[in-house]
Each structure stands twice: as C-alpha cells, then as structure tokens.
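sanity check this record:

:::
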Amino acid sequence: MPRILMTGAAGGIGTGLRKLLPAIYPDLLLSDIRKPADLGPKERFKAAELSDLAQVEAICEGVDGILHFGGYSVEGPWDVILQSNIIGCYNLFEAARKKGVKRVVFASSNHAVGFYKYGMKVTCLRIGNFGDKPLDHRRLSIWLKPEDLVQLCRIGLEHPDIHFEILYGASYNERSWWDNHRAYDLGYRPSGRAEDFREHAFAEQAKLPPDPVSDFYQGGAFCSMEFAGDSSRIIDWK
C-alpha cells in the first residue's frame, strides 16, 4: 500500500478526512503545525512548520503521495499568508521533488476567483512564444503571432463582458497543448497558423543540441535547468 502524507490534519478538511482515508490508505501520515487535540491512538502524526523546508523534507521522507491541505485558509495578515501559503507551498513541492514523491494533490480555493477586486477588469494572458515565426519543433505548439497578441490585448481592454479572465497567448496552432476556447468565446480569431512554418521550425530544430527535457516540456529550457529525473522515461513525441 502507498504511504500517504496529509498536511493540515488539524484543520476542518483534515479532521473530516481523517475519518475516511484510513480505510483506503492505511499507511497514512498526518501532519500539521500542532498535534490535533483528538488524535487517535492508531493515528500517526509528525508536526511540521510549512515555512521550514527542513521540517517539510522530514515529513516527505518515504512518502508516495501527498494530500496538501495545510496553510492558512482564511484572510489574514500578509506575513501569515506569505509564510503559510506561499513559502509553505513552495517548500511542500520542493521537498516532494527532492524526496521522490510521485503524486501531490494540492488544495486550492474557490476564493482565488471568488471576488473581482475593487471593480477592476483584469485579463491574464498566458503567453506562449511571441515572434514572427515558431523557432523550433516545441514552439509549433505555443507560437503567438504579434498581430494575434494585439487581438488579445484589445479583448482585454475593450470587451464589455470582461471581469476576470485567463486566456492563452497562442495563435492557431494545430499542435497546441492548450484549450483556449474562452478566448474564442470572446471573439478571438488568430491569423497566425504555426503549421505554415513547419519546415522552418524543423530545420531550426535540427541545428539544436539534443535536449529531451527542453524539447518535450512546455517550459522548455526552464525545465532543463534543474531537471533531476530520468530523461529516458520521457515519451518520444516526434
């Protein structure tokens, strides 16, 4: 059976799940900043402060999967939120990476999108690769023609139905990894087509040194920088 770590064991969600999870995952390790008052004799618990990386690494040792419910779930002072929810979340994922944890379930919140701040209309653009043409094989999937970015900017600045949107900055890319239907719902009609530059992209790809990590993952060279896994397990997608 896999060993599962659940953070936030003393919180509302954690308390509820402590009654349900042991029947499914008997090898369950609980953690929180302090021990739950009603901890049962058969429950295993190890305290950890999420803002302390060494403590988080200790609870991740030998773990196969993590249910991350730890953190500050209501509004609070900036420093409290910073330590628990931002630094703490970074530490959790970093410790999981270092300790070889296979899966993480991260509890976000509807509150992240539940309020439009002060009436301001905001559009977030997740921009792929901006330029006149895609520069290699990977960027056939994420290319963004300059004129298409102008379209997205105009949607964000002018569309009457904008409140808060997250749109992908990508042209018409048949190899795209992203579902950009919301941009199309708002009238986006990209004029750039990545496959028109297929031959150019493959010719440029041939000039590059082999890098299976950069070639495969959306993050490109940013993924190669600290990759510590087994590159032979990456599927050949060419």
User: Anything to note?
Assistant: The mean pLDDT is 89. The first helix runs from residue 12 to 17. The first strand starts at residue 4 and ends at 7. Helices lie at 12-17, 53-60, 78-98, 146-158, 181-185, 198-206, 212-216, 221-225.
